[in-house]
Amino acid sequence: MTVIMNDSAGYSGLANSPLVHPTYHDAIMARVEERDFLGDITNSEITERIKDCGQMVQILRQPTVTPWRSYSLNQPMITGNVSITAVCLSICNAAYQCFKFDELTINAACDNWGLFEQAFLAANYEAFVSFQRGWVFGHMVAAVHPRNRGHKAGLTGAIDLGDRGNAKIVTRSTVAVELALLKQVLVETLHFIPGSMWLVVPPELQTVLVSSNFSNMSWLGTGTSMIVDGLWEKPLMGFNVYETIHLPWSVESGKVCYHILAGHKDAFTYAANIIRSRLVSGIDSFSVMYQMLAVWGGAALYPEYMALGYWCFDPLAA
């Protein structure tokens, strides 16, 4: 039985608070959908609500049409087709979260519910997106088309984007060139669409930008968006830029090196949801546990629509 106590917020314990509602977790997901940028860099346009692990959902792929053909007088025309296909995405990953509230914590939460709920939702939002970004970025890195990564990228294999064991050293003098190379690789796929391209970078990029030509505020902008977490105010070389600490990294020769991801929203599909939550009374203590179950899935739809750099940053180099 949950702990009962009177409080100024009108709740006599967690059992009488919004936490007891079986869909309270929707408040966390509402914040995720509003503020997190994963929905901006992935195809998340599913037509049904995610309700369980093992669920199959459909994602529509971009329509394809047959190519143009040369025409001559009285030539019989060959009829082409418009092809629309759907990809079945398996929601096959699951994880849980479990918090324990002891008697004193319950008392404090119920007496200050407004402040507690605000902090509780914010903390759970940050924990959920941190976990999910790590998963999505790791799978994106693995899925990038071989032609769009490494030392022999591009149509002719002449572009060096960096790779494990031999990262590109990005300085204030080279940052513009490295960004242009990522862009060139994607332009060569014939799918660089201004306004629809994204670039995910670590905070360290700022250390070389501030002393480069991009330090001109008309190029770089003045900060990050207050609407979507991590989104820079202005695009950079045709990319909408998202700054995050969650990119995959490793240490080589004493330097931290990052996988830099760029691409189009259609490249990778992803969907996630918290599907269940509940309050459970503690058995061996005066406590109540709040438990949540989350499920998610993702897959590359167009690996050639992503590019991968491998960079180390040196803000002191010329």
Describe this structure in words.
The protein has 318 residues and is α+β, with helices and mostly antiparallel strands. Helix content is 24%, strand content 28%. The chain is built from 7 helices and 13 strands. It has helices spanning 25-35, 38-41, 103-111, 113-143, 175-187, 205-209, 217-220; strands at 55-60, 64-65, 82-83, 86-91, 93-102, 168-170, 197-201, 240-243, 249-252, 255-264, 268-281, 287-300, 306-313. Strands 6, 7, 8, 9, 10 and 13 form a 6-stranded mixed beta sheet that branches. Strands 5-12-11 form a 3-stranded antiparallel beta sheet. The chain has a two-stranded antiparallel sheet with strand order 1-4. A hairpin with a 2-residue loop joins β9 (249-252) and β10 (255-264). α1 (25-35) packs across α4 (113-143) and α3 crosses α4 (113-143). The longest helix is centred in the middle third of the chain and has 31 residues, at 113-143. It is globular. The protein starts with 24 loop residues before the first helix and ends in a 5-residue tail after the last strand.
